[in-house]
From TrEMBL:
NCBIfam families: TAT_signal_seq. The lineage of its organism: Bacteria, Pseudomonadati, Pseudomonadota, Betaproteobacteria, Rhodocyclales. This is Conserved hypothetical secreted protein.
Amino acid sequence: MSNTSPRAPMRVVEKRITLSRRGFLKGGGMAALGVGALSTATLMTPAREALAANFKVLGAATGKTLLVLARDIFPHDRISDRYYLQALEPLEAQAAKDDKLKALLTEGTAALDRLAKLRFKKAYADLAKETDRLSLLYVIEHGAFFQKVKGHLVTGFYDNKAVWPLFGYEGSSWEKGGYINRGFDDIDWLDGA
């Protein structure tokens, strides 16, 4: 299909991307194997410790657990912990005003740590294997603590405009005329299918 209307500037940005989606998916499997060999907990510990110190209301220990929990709920290996912190900051601000929420978060992380120590002899955030941490999350996934954090992160993380470019999302298009003349009919990523 050809489109006779002039392309919007966003179209130029799309063409600068040299990796096709198909190529990304092909290479993603190999990258996942390489990244899987290294634990995100091991790679990010010093930075995570520093970020956890930002939790003044809930405390650094709770903050560290929440950061690891957030990453385990919505795992994106290429996204820095600071974006997870940004997603959790409003939750901490709410906890400063709401004693029930503060108790839910501090007691929930403490319970998660107790469960981790019972099964693996380490706190949840100190478990190097993602599979060990996920096995604990399956135990608590229907509880109020897990559901509160997960529910908050859905919007707190994915509505962060600073994260959008990292996912390749260029933002809303309706105010620019929609996607019809801005790449809707571009299926060159399907080449070779």
